Amino acid sequence: MVAVGEFDLIARLAAILGSPGAAVLTAIGDDAAVLAPDLVVATDLVVEDVHVRRSTSSVADIGWKALAVNLSDLAAMGAQPVAAVVALGLGPGFGDDDAAALYEGLRACADTYGCPVVGGDVSRAAQLVIAVTVIGRASEPRLRSGARIGDVVAVTGSLGGSEAGRLLLEGLAVASPHEAELVARHRRPLPLLVAGQRLAGVVHAMLDVSDGVASDARRLAEASGVAVEIDLDALPLQAGVQEVAAAAGRLPGVFAAIGGEDYELLVALPSARLDPSLTAIGRVRAGEPAVTFVGAGAVAGLAGYDHLAVRS
Amino acid sequence: MVAVGEFDLIARLAAILGSPGAAVLTAIGDDAAVLAPDLVVATDLVVEDVHVRRSTSSVADIGWKALAVNLSDLAAMGAQPVAAVVALGLGPGFGDDDAAALYEGLRACADTYGCPVVGGDVSRAAQLVIAVTVIGRASEPRLRSGARIGDVVAVTGSLGGSEAGRLLLEGLAVASPHEAELVARHRRPLPLLVAGQRLAGVVHAMLDVSDGVASDARRLAEASGVAVEIDLDALPLQAGVQEVAAAAGRLPGVFAAIGGEDYELLVALPSARLDPSLTAIGRVRAGEPAVTFVGAGAVAGLAGYDHLAVRS
């Protein structure tokens, strides 16, 4: 969850930290860091009014999500969770009962995915902040840097649902039979740990769709040093997304490409290895490491997207 | 670094999380959680205006401290650092140059203690918050729950220095030849990783002095199910603390017992194993798990301390 709007700062901070040495196989820049021999660690900060809002999510939902987004990073490495720790800053209006409700949501997610929360820290703060760190194991972690020229770019599941759910929660007037599923998608994302472990043995590169396919495909391109082309017409839409995008006055492919927080897995693999769990949405070509788009809205809606700061 | 003023909340949250299962040997309640087979993990949240102040510390100091306090938790387990991850929330007035300076301080601490920062997350936030998580290894982690009746309670180094440094930074007028050392103690604590690894093979129980000996001795007593008696007259004072305490109108033993953030190691061990690196400050007795005090100020200054909420 990057919300500073600038990847430049992260690159600058990574440069200050330098090369981590032999005990660390892959450090900053992937979904998680890979420690020797098979240990994987990821951390994500969830900030009230930046990543979550109490007007649209319960505190239990927020607790769930804070862990789920980290587990999605493990999923994207093909890792299995070992344990999590939680550092919690309680905002002024956040009482003990709220903290307990937040932990109930954390616990529900921890139980669902077999990732015990084993430690933490609690402090007062100016707003609710939750930093979860997860540790996992992956015998063969799959990085985002392995995409090869000629690979197909594919995605699990469906896109746009979290963003559609968010808009409905914020009051967009659409009578949708899919409202409950869209809202659930936004409030309680489901990290794809099992799919990630299976795909790790099949794909060349993998990352999770946290900020939207448009941003995450750019990360894939940059990490792998390849050009990526995404076909907006090929993006698999969650049921109901089409109607919500229309009500918001946006083309569905653009909506699904920019809408973040779907926590699907974005992969690059040889076309022969495509299976029914994946939808092909683009391809890997030789060229400058950047993402280009084809399909409806590619020019009007996403031209130059590669050079824009991403949404939070 | 507990700053909610109530341990009740932490106990309640720990109960919600439940028992973590077989892969986790020791979870919430020690300095760090112990994962099977020899992995240790700890997390601490540093919040601006709660744990650190930009009026008294540079942002580089804050970066150093955010990692150092976590490394002190590893030291208290007798663990060796493997890697750290950092989740950073940038407050409104905190620019990219500030973030870079903070990372310079983090990096300096990471290099000093051989703990590479391998990943992180950056977001905007209402105030500066830094959640550092450290992972370490300990073949034989030393818990705070092992104190035995008849043990001596002892502490490494000296106490009160960080609190004295803080008061000097906040403007307390004392002409001290030790000002620079006291201020450095507050701004850049030095986690005792080497001492911790050595003591792990010698002592029955160990924890770090983060909130002050009075609080931390209570934790030792509660975790071990024993009574602990602390002699305020026996506390080793850092040079200059006596004068600062006097200027602040406080008895030195009480000052050193309550002043937090010294990051010394508090241990329980058989008296025959005491060595010159340790100062005996109390003993372990049969009785209710609580801490009692003797020496100057024990009645007036610390009576009933066991039942008070601790300072942050």
Please describe what this structure looks like.
The structure is a homodimer of 312-residue chains. Chain A has 312 residues and is of the alpha+beta class. The first copy, chain A, folds into two domains: 7-137, PurM-like, N-terminal domain (60s Ribosomal Protein L30, Chain: A, 2-Layer Sandwich); 152-307, PurM-like C-terminal domain (Phosphoribosyl-aminoimidazole Synthetase, Chain A, domain 2, Alpha-Beta Complex), CATH 3.90.650.10. In chain A, 32% of the residues lie in helices and 24% in strands. The first copy, chain A, contains nine helices and twelve strands. The first copy, chain A, has helices at residues 7-17, 59-77, 96-113, 161-169, 179-187, 193-200, 213-224, 241-247, 252-258, and strands at residues 24-26, 33-35, 39-47, 80-90, 117-124, 129-137, 152-156, 205-208, 227-231, 265-269, 278-285, 291-294. In chain A, strands 1-2-3-6-4-5 form a six-stranded mixed beta sheet. In chain A, helix 3 links the parallel strand 4 (80-90) and strand 5. In chain A, helix 2 runs parallel beside helix 3, helix 2 (59-77) runs parallel beside helix 6 (193-200) and helix 4 (161-169) packs across helix 5 (179-187). Chain A is globular. Residues 1-5 and 307-312 of chain A have low confidence and may be disordered. Chains A and B meet through helix 1, strand 3, strand 4, helix 3 and strand 5 of A and helix 1, strand 3, strand 4, helix 3 and strand 5 of B.
